[in-house]
Hints:
Layout: E1 2-3, E2 8-10, H1 13-26, E3 32-36, H2 43-53, E4 71-74, E5 78-83, H3 92-103, E6 107-111, E7 124-131, E8 140-147
Amino acid sequence: MTILKNKIITRSAAETKKAGFILGKSLRAGDIVALSGELGAGKTTFVKGVAKGLGVRSEKEVASPTFVLIHEYKGKFPVYHLDWYRLPAVEGPDELLAQECFEGAGVTLVEWPERGKDLLPKKRIEVYLSHRAASTPTHRLIRIQFYGKKA
Ligand SMILES: Nc1ncnc2c1ncn2[C@@H]1O[C@H](COP(=O)(O)OP(=O)(O)OP(=O)(O)O)[C@@H](O)[C@H]1O
Ligand SMILES: [Mg+2]
């Protein structure tokens, strides 16, 4: 893993988990993390590390909640894992659930946050993952940005 001023380069899924772990360790109850990046960029892989950093014991439990509304893990605080990939817009029960998570006493992680941009609280952490180049299929570029008070 290479940590530069405003980006991290990882060279394996394990390194991406490690990067997530480091962020996870510094999170507090009420924090919201939005994870962007194309299919297979490594959002769920990063979330596995974040969950571990938050004290979630079983990594196997951590998977994309693509076909259900939410996955909830037990760590130092509750960890709410949302994935909005399949939603054209975040409305109705999905919106209510998200609001509950954001206001709750846990950490909320959202994959495909762009589906419901307007719902995201101003105070949030954004993580962007991308492939670096076709010639380096296991390399990822990760940028993390803090918005709002905690910045
Ligand atoms: N450096 C890396 N970081 C993260 N994942 C990597 C890396 N190199 C290879 N991979 C592989 O890429 C895949 C990333 O899948 P993952 O489910 O984390 O992506 P995702 O962004 O959550 O996708 P989706 O949008 O479908 O939810 C995994 O199979 C992982 O093993
Ligand atoms: Mg995913």
